[in-house]
Amino acid sequence: MTGSRDEEPSMVHLQSYLHGGTSSLLSTIPTLIVFPVYKTVFRQQIDNTSVHQAVGQLYKEGPVKLYRGVAPPLLMRTLNGTLLFGLQDTLLRQLSLSPQNIISTSALPALAGFGAGIVEAVVFTPFERVQNVLQNGQNDRHLPTLKTVLVRLKAQRLALGYYRGFLPITARNTLGSSLYFGLKGPICTVVAGQGLSPLASSFISGTLTSMAISLTLYPLSVLVANMQAQVGGEVKGVMACWRMLWHSRERSMVLLYRGGSLVILRSCITWGITTAIYDRQEKRSG
Question: What GO cellular component is one of the record's annotations (predicted)?
């Protein structure tokens, strides 16, 4: 009897990893559907073009290349949910049990999300690097396949190869995770108070939270895309890359936020579904 009691908290503890992975896996279906939208946004971030021009580029390249680079985000999406939700829950439990905790209980989910975001950046920066290289049409000739990209990046130092853009990714992921886990609960409570079902409340909560995060941190995503899209050439630091990006956008926030509306669409679909499925699984097992 004692053994089964000891195992029960461990099983509950591991369920958050399983639920996070399951919810993210199911959300890969809409991720696959909206990948052309994501790729359109990426082209706007790199080439500073309008939606019409970006779509025209993809149309000329043809349907075969349209889904070039889709494998990393699909794999990353599933693993990301497993790690992010599971690790945040693990850290939250540890923080809640700490006898010397001087932080407000309401702030603990955000703090745990911050810690999970750091680990997320360490694990998934290489995935994002490979994805951005594959999506850049300028690399099609000298890096035509996933294997050639992996070999080329492996030949370089980590800071220039797989971990190019690590600092802005860490900033984006830690802030994003903190905001997500800190806001989704309170927003869900407010929405549920309007008489909506728990599933609808979770979906709307995930949608609104991710929408706010995407818009707030969008400049960091643009910076990361520009830093990671090329392999080789002149290497510049984060601040130098930011100055170049800001100058290329004519010091205009409107131009910097090109593609932002499509990011909202993607966030509404993926994170809304992920949050709804995860919360539903957590309540069933609770």
Answer: mitochondrial inner membrane
